[in-house]
Recover the amino acids of this structure.
């Protein structure tokens, strides 16, 4: 997350660096709480093909024993934390598209709603036990897809959402026809190195 914040911070105008960094870290905090409350359960519970239900809400039955649906050796709480990292980084990827276009409160509200409408269902369908597109763990899956690294759940959902937002929001304010040079290639380079 710091890598993404620095990378985006280097791409925006100097006056917006703190805004972009605040958006990234604000999302990290908000998504952590959302993931603990209902997000993990909606993504990795076993209730249905599109959403996982509330069996694990507030980390109910998420302990040090492995969850056999997802691992034979990693404890359930470690798996919870590992998946939380994907949940945090995915809406933060959208921040690059909305930088300098939306206020902090609007970004937070949009991303929290987006988690319920896009991320939780996509994560459950692709990765959740019983997910309707989980080609690895659901023999009855209607679409047998395999997404080991998050190409669909993380990158496609955030990328298509970012593109849709760009089309809706239009060009960044204060920019003419000339492309905007990056504010700081040093920040971009440090952020890229951290992401790499």
């Amino acid at each position: 997350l710091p890598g993404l914040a620095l990378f985006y911070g280097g791409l925006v105008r100097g006056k917006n660096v703190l805004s972009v960094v605040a958006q990234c870290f604000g999302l990290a905090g908000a998504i952590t709480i959302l993931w603990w409350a209902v997000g993990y359960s909606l993504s990795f519970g076993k209730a249905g093909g599109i959403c996982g239900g509330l069996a694990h809400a507030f980390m109910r039955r998420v302990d040090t024993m492995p969850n056999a649906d997802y691992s034979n050796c990693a404890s359930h709480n470690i798996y919870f934390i590992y998946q939380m990292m994907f949940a945090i980084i995915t809406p933060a990827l959208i921040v690059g598209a909305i930088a300098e276009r939306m206020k902090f409160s609007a970004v937070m509200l949009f991303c929290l709603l987006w988690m319920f409408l896009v991320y939780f269902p996509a994560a459950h369908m692709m990765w959740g036990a019983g997910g309707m597109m989980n080609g690895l763990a659901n023999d009855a899956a209607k679409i047998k897809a395999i997404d080991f690294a998050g190409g669909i759940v993380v990158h496609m959902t955030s990328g298509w959402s970012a593109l849709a937002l760009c089309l809706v929001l239009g060009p960044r304010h204060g920019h003419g026809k000339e492309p905007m040079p990056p504010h700081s290639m040093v920040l971009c380079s440090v952020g890229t190195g951290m992401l790499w």
The first helix runs from residue 2 to 11.
